[in-house]
Specification:
2 domains, alpha+beta, four-stranded mixed β-sheet, single chain, Endo-n-acetylneuraminidase fold, disulfide bond
């Protein structure tokens, strides 16, 4: 099994390389020499990141494998948007030149990737996949909530450990750069990490006579990553355009009538392109070839999605399961129903 899809190097805030297909996952277990060779060949890392990579090769593997999850979440959140978090498979950078800007979309990419690192690492700790961490060791003894007292038990997700590692590894390069974009990206990294922590849930199991719940055992668990994605998408919608101060140490709202950004807000420096036409310099893939909804007036509607350039219609046949019936015991039998549907596709730039 390959470590990651072939031939793609990904560098956002995480600086993880998607290694060529010939590199096998087992090479992460070759010991000190093997991890040193591997980490020295990941482009874009600064010295401190390379040191951490050599010290924690299994952690790097876990984070790298989790990249697909946050990219999938990003694409879900923007599936009906002109910019749909599309990646460029043959580019050294998954998002092309988009990341050279400091737009609202880039703010989301940094936040969701940082959140993804925390979520993936905390989950791996709880599952016992890493020898450097496990369940949250601070969740011991007794505590209480609105329902009364309980005993800590089970395995609480060690989010604080994941956040600390993410801060050390992910933020290191940006801390060294300290230009305007680095300051903005560090802020959005932090907002992403805070979003994961925001959705920690207390889960409990009842004990007692006939399930009376006279005694409870509880643990802290992360909510599904979809909650984090939904939250960051809302933050994207209300993101604040900012200007960096003359000392390059902080920022403030770019316009006096804008609210001052909080630690939870996403921030950006530059206006976004319209993403209507393919433009490699801005990282826009254009909307030509995208499916649109002819009857909608929202972002997924053909007028908006296709940027007024028109669309083509084709009739396709789709097969779905229908007339399903339950048969005792224990099967469900369905018919294959064929349906002709109209599909609308945005025209490309003319």
């Amino acid at each position: 099994m390959n470590f990651l899809p072939s031939g793609i190097c990904f560098y956002v805030s995480v600086a993880i390389c998607w290694l060529p297909a010939k590199v096998h996952a087992s090479r992460w277990y070759m010991g000190t020499l093997g991890s040193q060779v591997m980490c020295d060949n990941i482009p874009g890392l600064v010295n401190k990141q390379r040191q951490l990579c050599r010290q924690h090769p299994k952690v790097m593997q876990v984070i790298g494998a989790g990249v697909k999850d946050w990219i999938s979440e990003c694409q879900h959140q923007f599936r009906n948007h002109r910019w749909n978090c599309n990646t460029m498979g043959r580019d050294q950078n998954l998002f092309g030149r988009l990341l050279l800007r400091s737009s609202r979309e880039v703010a989301f990419v940094y936040a969701i990737s940082s959140a993804g690192v925390v979520y993936t690492l905390a989950r791996a700790c709880s599952r016992g996949e890493l020898n450097t961490c496990s369940c949250d060791p601070t969740k011991k003894g007794s505590s209480h909530d609105a329902k009364g007292s309980f005993d800590w038990g089970g395995c609480s997700d060690h989010v604080e450990h994941a956040i600390r590692f993410s801060q050390i590894f992910v933020d290191t390069k940006k801390r060294e750069e300290r230009d305007a974009r680095a300051i903005i990206n560090l802020h959005n990294n932090r907002a992403g990490r805070k979003a994961v922590k925001r959705f920690m849930n207390l889960e409990c199991k009842c004990h007692g006579v006939s399930g009376s719940c006279s005694v409870r055992t509880c643990w802290q668990a992360m909510a599904d990553f979809r909650h984090t994605g939904d939250h960051l998408r809302k933050r994207y919608n209300s993101a604040v355009q900012v200007a960096v101060n003359q000392y390059g140490t902080g920022f403030t709202a770019a316009h006096t009538h804008f609210k001052q950004p909080s630690k939870n807000d996403l921030v950006y420096l530059e206006d976004s392109p319209d993403y209507c036409i393919r433009d490699q310099d801005s990282g826009s893939m254009g909307t030509g070839g995208r499916v649109c909804n002819r009857t909608s007036h929202s972002m997924e509607g053909c007028e908006v999605m296709c940027c007024g350039q028109g669309y083509d219609m084709s009739r396709v046949s789709r097969t779905t399961k229908c007339e399903c019936k339950f048969h005792w015991c224990c099967a469900v039998h369905c018919r294959d129903c064929h349906q002709q549907v109209d599909v609308h596709i945005c025209k490309g730039q003319t």
